[in-house]
Amino acid sequence: MRPHDRQIRGTFDACPRDPVLVGYRPGLGRPVVIRPKISPLLFIALSVAYLAPVRLALGEPVASRVSDSDCGGAVATGGKDAGAAPAPAMPLRIMPVGDSITVGYTDNPAWDVPFAFGYRGGLYSRLTDAGCRFEFVGGSTEPWTGISGDPTRGGTVAPDLDLRDFEQDGHRGYGGASIGAITRGIAGWIAADRPDLILLLIGINGISPHSPAQLDALVAAIFAASPEVHLVVAQITPYGAYNQALRDYNLHIRDTLVPARAAAGFNISTVDLYSLFLTDPGDPTSIGAGLHSNPPHHNHPTNAVYDRMAEAWFREIERLDLVPAESPARPGP
User: Fold this and answer.
1) Inside any domain, residue 333
2) Contact yes or no for 113/107 (Cβ under 8 A)
3) In a domain, 87, yes or no
4) ∠ CA 63-68-72 to the nearest 5 degrees?
């Protein structure tokens, strides 16, 4: 069975006014609720007659179901403990992976531009506002290691939104990381962090005509380690000046890598972060001024652009139906 194939693993709702069948995508736990337009009592009778032998053959209780819950989590109910309160939904485990841009570096080591967790801060806010139950995972300790200056400036500066306060600073971003460095670490990180969703933003360090093939090898390593994970591969952000190899790399992601892997049955998609820097979306050379925080290198976005990147990531996650349809008000402190 290919990684994206759906399986029916639930039976029916005990309430005859609202019968359902529930399927889900293995690995992500995304429930798919089927509400047939037939008589509820007839539906229940047919469900028992058709599904009971299958469930018994699988050794699974017939009277159980999986109900939809926050951001791709699942709550198991029914069975002999049907009267008990449902177990809490499992949060969607999101692993941001990449280089200094995933960390959220700005003009380090000076840190005159405050550290705000890069796109991760804005993505946290949007997912929280959407009522999504999620967890950022990953064992990188940057930028707090001091490897490139002190973002707190001796403890005198703190981010307005500090993800550490919510235990949401998990990521696998490493300053200066190349595609090869991520490839060497990825299998162990996946084993340790058990992600449902990987946000991959890598390639600006050492970009060259060889980068597309290196990225192909990295993506192969990801799916070898976790065939059912959902992977979103970013078309990467530009330098301050146009770079043809970087442009070709992004076109490879959009036109070759992602379509080929999707056709093979893997959960993969892409998000365009490059165009956020353009003054003319139709002209890939029109990279705007003042959108990078670290001249003369011009490879780290400003915090305003990081927030636009967060919006792009969020819209892609939303498109994948990994967030609820409704957006309740964000809870207060």
Assistant:
1) no
2) yes
3) no
4) 130
Which residues form the domain of 21? Answer: 7-81
Which residues, other chains included, contact 232 with Cβ-Cβ below 8 Å and sequence gap of 6+?
A: 197, 198, 199, 200, 268, 269, 270, 271, 313, 316, 317, 320
- CATH number of the domain enclosing 97: 3.40.50.1110
Q: How buried is residue 241: exposed, middle or buried, by Cβ count under 10 Å (0-12/13-18/19+)?
A: exposed
Q: How confident is the model at residue 328 (pLDDT cuts 50, 70, 90)?
A: very low
Q: Could you tell me which residues are beta bridge partners of residue 135?
A: 93
Q: What is the pLDDT of residues 262-271, one digit of tens each?
A: 999 999 999 9
Is 315 within a domain? Answer: yes
- Cβ neighbors of 259 (< 8 A, separation 6 or more) are none
Q: What average pLDDT score do residues 47-53 get?
A: 40
Q: Are residues 278 and 144 in the same domain?
A: yes
Residues 14 and 110 in one domain: no
Torsions phi, psi for 219 (to 5 deg): -65, -40
- Tell me the residue type at 75: V
Q: How many CA atoms lie within 13 A of 74 on its CB side?
A: 20
